[in-house]
Design a protein that fits this description.
It is built from 10 helices and 10 strands. The protein is α/β, with parallel strands linked by helices. A hairpin with a 2-residue loop joins strand 1 and strand 2. It is globular, with a radius of gyration of 19 Å. It binds adenosine-5'-triphosphate. Adenosine-5'-triphosphate (ATP) binds next to helix 1.
């Protein structure tokens, strides 16, 4: 079933994807292509299907119909969540899941160790190369000064950055980020946009977000979802001046 997509160069390709919950089509004939190296923002009113779409890409939800292809050849519907993470798709959920009783550095060390247990990763001696990677990661996520603080003492925004840093250490080719700006201060929100732009220099990023100032700062192509399919695509200015999009947001 995958051969027909080999001429498609997208890092992520969704074609005619649908899924129903108790007869209700949460995703309805969804088509989406993310190009390699692209940053894409996904917006849409509550219930548009944004989370369900992320769930389908990451193997949490199986589509009833359609193709979900990674890098032109990997049929993601055949794999489970852990396998998809290992294939190279990292997902950042809205709520941070860092270990609060460990330091920032230890959390990163654990992420670096991947499948080792917490205890194994803490007694495992880091190579110089690993230490350097963690230090570079700390600089990326703006937490160099906070490396020895307990993760539980960080602000909400800093915890989100730490978790993004942990995901980056697993070196995903595609990073999916769910509402990163929720609960952040304006300053944290803008720093998060800068962080994702920096990350996007080396990998593809798909961000679901409601905060329009944040979306504007990303300066990327925007896809508007509505009732489980794509309503509009373009720059933020283009989609914001699209009458159908305006009507959907105003509930008309
Ligand atoms: N497991 C499920 N069982 C039943 N209905 C579901 C399930 N998951 C999602 N839905 C429904 O599917 C629709 C799409 O939900 P989804 O959470 O994907 O939207 P969303 O765009 O992420 O919304 P929000 O912006 O509020 O997070 C909603 O009507 C939701 O109630």
């Amino acid at each position: 079933m995958v051969n027909k997509h080999l001429d498609n160069n997208g890092i992520l390709y969704l074609s005619s994807v649908s899924v129903s919950f108790d007869g209700f089509k949460a995703i309805n004939n969804l088509n989406l292509i993310i190009e390699p190296g692209e940053m894409r923002a996904i917006i849409g009113p509550n219930g548009a299907g944004k989370t369900t779409m992320m769930d389908i890409i990451t193997g949490k939800t199986r589509p009833d119909e359609g193709d979900v292809i990674f890098k032109s050849k990997v049929d993601l519907t055949k794999y489970d969540e852990v396998q998809i993470a290992n294939i190279g798709i990292g997902r950042k959920f809205q709520k941070p899941t860092v270990i609060e009783t460990l330091t920032v550095f230890e959390n990163l060390e654990m992420a670096m160790a991947g499948r080792r247990t917490v205890w194994q990763s803490l007694i495992h001696k880091l190579s110089n190369e690993d230490t350097q990677k963690i230090n570079e990661n700390l600089a990326l996520i703006n937490l160099s000064e906070d490396a020895q603080r307990l993760a539980g003492d960080l602000s909400h925004g800093q915890k989100q950055w730490l978790e993004i840093g942990m995901l980056i250490l697993t070196e995903p080719e595609l990073l999916l980020v769910d509402e990163p700006a929720a609960g952040m201060t304006d300053e944290e929100t803008m720093k998060t946009a800068e962080l994702l732009k920096e990350i996007n220099k080396t990998r593809s990023v798909v961000v679901v977000e409601h905060d329009m100032d944040f979306i504007r700062a990303l300066n990327s192509k925007v896809t508007v979802l509505h009732e489980g399919h794509v309503l509009a695509e373009g720059t933020l200015d283009q989609v914001q001046s699209n009458q159908q999009v305006i009507d959907v947001y105003l509930g008309r």
